[in-house]
Every structure is written in structure tokens, then in C-alpha cells.
Design brief:
This protein is of the alpha/beta class. It has one domain: Ribonuclease H-like superfamily/Ribonuclease H (Nucleotidyltransferase, domain 5, 2-Layer Sandwich), CATH 3.30.420.10. Helix content is 42%, strand content 15%. Strands 3-2-1-4-5 form a 5-stranded mixed sheet. The chain is globular. Belongs to the RNase HII family.
Length: 202
């Protein structure tokens, strides 16, 4: 999974920020992105697309990745903004915010010289490459996907306590049959994406 990064490093770039998002297809909650810069050595074993890992394995890798990384940043865009600008633009915005939030372990801002992005382009004047299925093909994007997934899943636990009855801790905001039935029964909460619910609420 380092073939792509190795090629970029050989081109003279050093701080490759790898970016991925989670929550794009959810009916509720923020879309969350992670930008992360991993070192060229000391790889974390077992990294792959977060969707192909168990929750327990993601939690273990989350701590290992954060202890190894040079820097990371999180970007969040709320459901109300998603409704205003659409999910594609919200995803790109979350990715941009994640890059702008890159910090090392001491809280110092870190500036990447190249962006490796999962299937998107980011509105930043930094050399970048969009990789289709990047979370499965790039080690760094795989790391970003795990951090973003665990971060958002933890947000879902908070939302579940705040917005009772939707069972957000179970389905994480995705459009499961149970979630859709709960929306029809309770109506949408303040974190539901109204633009995603038009057919459900008819």
C-alpha cells in the first residue's frame, strides 16, 4: 500500500497529507474528514480501508496510528451546512478544514507539501492527486479512513445520548430500516440532513 506514497516521495515531496472522509451517505450528523501525515518508516501493521475492519480492530489501530503519525487534523461539516451547499461540497470543505487543522503532537501547525486524496479534489493551492478507492490502495489514506471513522463513531455515541430514540449508536446515522422508521415516528432531529429526507418525509 506504499507504492503511491513511495512514488511521490521519490519526486521530492516529504510531507504527504493523506485525506479521507466518513459519513458522506448518512442521514444524520456531520461529515468528518481526517488529514494525516505518516512517517516513511515505522509502519503500523494491519492498516486498510476502515470499512473492512471490525470496530475493535479500528479502535486498536486508531491509537497506534495517532502515536506514529507526524501530524493529523480533523475537519467537520454539520448537517445544516450539508443542506445548504450539498454533500459533495461539504465533503470537500471538511477535507480542506482537516488539512488546515494539521498539527503535530505538541500542537504545532504542520504544512503539507503534497495532498493524496480519496476520490476528491480540495480547494487548496497545494500539489495533489485524487486516488479512486484510495483507502484500499494507499497506506496513508487507509490511516486517515480509520481515524475519521473512529472519530465519527464516537460522535455518534454523543449524539445518541442527546437525541434519544433514533438509536444512532447502532447505525451511526446511516439509512437503515430501523433508522428510517424512527425518523417517520419521531420526525427529524436537529442533526438530520433535511435534504436527504425528502422521500422519507413525504
Amino acid at each position: 500500500m506504499l507504492e503511491i506514497e513511495n512514488s511521490i516521495w521519490k519526486s521530492g515531496f516529504n510531507n504527504i497529507a493523506c485525506i479521507d472522509e466518513v459519513g458522506r451517505g448518512c442521514l444524520a450528523g456531520d461529515v468528518v474528514a481526517c488529514a494525516i501525515i505518516m512517517p516513511k518508516t515505522s509502519l503500523v501493521e494491519g492498516v486498510r480501508d476502515s470499512k473492512k475492519l471490525s470496530e475493535k480492530k479500528r479502535e486498536i489501530l486508531y491509537d497506534q496510528i495517532l502515536s506514529h503519525c507526524i501530524a493529523y487534523g480533523i475537519g467537520r461539516v454539520s448537517s445544516s451546512i450539508i443542506d445548504k451547499i450539498n454533500i459533495k461540497e461539504a465533503t470537500r470543505l471538511a477535507m480542506k478544514i482537516a488539512v488546515e487543522n494539521l498539527q503535530d503532537g505538541d500542537g504545532n501547525k504542520v504544512y503539507p507539501d503534497f495532498l493524496l486524496v480519496d476520490a476528491e479534489n480540495i480547494d487548496l493551492e497545494i500539489p495533489q492527486e485524487s486516488i479512486i478507492k484510495g483507502d484500499d490502495r494507499s497506506y496513508g489514506i487507509g490511516c486517515a479512513s480509520i481515524i475519521a471513522k473512529v472519530f465519527r463513531d464516537r460522535l455518534c455515541l454523543e449524539w445518541d445520548r442527546e437525541f434519544e430514540g433514533y438509536n444512532l449508536k447502532k447505525h451511526k446515522g446511516y439509512g437503515t430500516k430501523e433508522h428510517i422508521e424512527n425518523i417517520k415516528t419521531l420526525g427529524p432531529s436537529s442533526i438530520h440532513r433535511r435534504s436527504f429526507l425528502k422521500k422519507i418525509l413525504k
